[in-house]
Amino acid sequence: MDWNSDILKNLAWNATISNRESKQKVAEQIAAKVKDGDIIGVGSGSTSYLAILAIGEKIKAEKLNVLAIPTSVEIALTCSNLGIPTTSLYEYKPDWYFDGADEVDPNKHLIKGRGGAMFKEKLIMTASERNYIIVDNSKLVDVIGSKFPVPVEVFPSALMVAEAGLKKLGATEIVLRPATGKDGPIISENGNLILDVKFEHIDKDMEYKIKCITGVIESGLFQNQPAEILVA
Ligand code: 5RP
Question: What's the ipTM?
Answer without folding.
Answer: 0.98
